[in-house]
Amino acid sequence: MTLSLNAPQTATDIPPHRQNGWRGLIEAYRPYLPVTDSTPVISLHEGNTPLIPVPTIAAEIGKKVQVFVKYDGLNPTGSFKDRGMTMAVTKAKEAGAKAVICASTGNTSAAAAAYAKRGGLRAFVLIPDGYVALGKLAQALVYGAEVLAIKGNFDRALEIVRELADRCPVTLVNSINPYRLEGQKTAAFEVIDDLGEAPDWLCIPVGNAGNITAYWMGFCQYHQMGRSTRLPKMMGFQASGSAPFVVGNPVLQPDTLATAIRIGNPANWDKALSVRDASQGEFNAVTDDEIMHAYRMLGQEGIFCEPASAASVAGLLKLKDRVREGATIVCVLTGNGLKDPDAAITHSDDSLFKKGIEPDLETVAEIMGF
Ligand SMILES: *Cc1c(COP(=O)(O)O)cnc(C)c1O
Predict the structure, then answer these.
(1) What distance in angstroms lies between residue 184's CA and the mean position of ligand 1's atoms?
(2) What is the pLDDT of residue 14?
(3) What per-residue confidence (pLDDT) applies to 9?
(4) For residues 334 and 79, is the Cβ–Cβ distance under 8 A?
(5) What is the pLDDT of residue 175?
(6) Phi, psi (5° rounding) for residue 313?
(7) For strand 171-172 and strand 122-128, is the pairing parallel, antiparallel, or unpaired?
(8) How confident is the chain (370 residues) per 10-residue block, as mean pLDDT?
(9) At 3, is the secondary structure helix, strand, or coil?
(10) Ligand 1 center to residue 10 CA distance, Å?
(11) Whose CA is nearest to atom 14 of ligand 1?
(12) How far away, in angstroms, is 335 Cα from ligand 1 center?
């Protein structure tokens, strides 16, 4: 079967929940989410991110296939975490919470800070000192979070916030908060709304495995409602220095330049294995070099994602021999490239950047090759 982007052709084909303009994913998918008419919705109009064809990546597969990226880096704070955070903060507000807390490799803290402050709550974030991309730290500070950088990795930060949330009047908004997954599952709804069907493969970077779990929830729910006739194989990719699902046990010292997935002891361990089994999917590892190769290829398509996000495309390229003729594949791009300018500049092509040039027309034209 060939699927086309934006399958609905006429106004009556547009699902009713998307007909009144976009006012955020809770409004768009209200019937599928745990909210009532009196729930105080905290939204930045997140969601509705584009599903973009990437023909040069499809060409690399060497067969007739369609490859799309779900560019979730275009959410209000630049990552898919906004999908979960609009729900988690909305429900915290509804329950009367005054503060939220999370451990974060960066994007969760940016999203938690933005939504908490918008809802009038305090936001506390614990980050691993020195391992958070610059853009993400900048965001948390601008949105007014109280940032605590600990001398330990993400896994240790998560242990601490879990205990704090038990003892103190703060709501935990890491992906073990069930409302996070409820919000995040809407990305799967959007994929099916755009394609008119579920893809064959959903390729996705995996850290704590909240997102792969949430996508699967969304695909299953839409399938049950008859909005798709099939379910995708869930293909999760981890960085090889930080691949607990591939090695089969927690990794004590996770290491990768893809800091958003630098997680050794995933919070959603059991759920992730269930998703793999139920979808007949797999977990595989990609090296940092493979990740950065995919990252640069995406740049050549005009798409700037952060390194962790490129793991989905790197994984697809690694498994390309196993893709069937005629398949439709969606790779999730979880975060925006602007989050991590250091990675972009360090891994750019030196020959493209010429410095110290005399400011005269002759010299500039000559360097340009004219
Ligand atoms: C959080 C995050 C991930 C990992 O998602 P999990 O739900 O923890 O598996 C991947 N990429 C980016 C950019 C992220 O922010």
Answers:
(1) 11
(2) 58
(3) 44
(4) yes
(5) 87
(6) -75, -40
(7) unpaired
(8) 52 61 94 97 98 98 97 98 98 97 94 98 94 90 95 93 95 95 98 98 98 98 98 98 98 94 95 98 98 97 97 98 97 97 90 92 95
(9) coil
(10) 35
(11) 260
(12) 8
To test the pocket of ligand 1, the residue of 334, 339, 340 to mutate (highest count of ligand atoms within 8 Å of its CB) is: 334
> Quick check: 345 and 299 in contact, CB under 8 A?
no
- On whether the pTM is more than 0.85, the answer is yes
Distance 72 CA to ligand 1 centre (A): 11
How many angstroms is it from 259 CA to the middle of ligand 1? Answer: 9
Ligand 1 closest atom vs CA 267: 8
* 123 SS3 class: strand
Report the C-alpha gap between 307 and 274 in whole angstroms.
27
Distance 44 CA to ligand 1 centre (A): 20
- Which residues fall within 8 angstroms of residue 322, CB to CB, at 6 or more apart? none
Q: Which residues contact 68 (CB under 8 A, 6 or more apart)?
A: 5, 51, 52, 53, 54, 195, 199, 328, 329, 330, 331
d(CA 251, CA 264): 4
Ligand 1: list residues with CB < 6 Å: 79, 81, 107, 175, 205-211, 260-261, 306, 308-309, 334-335
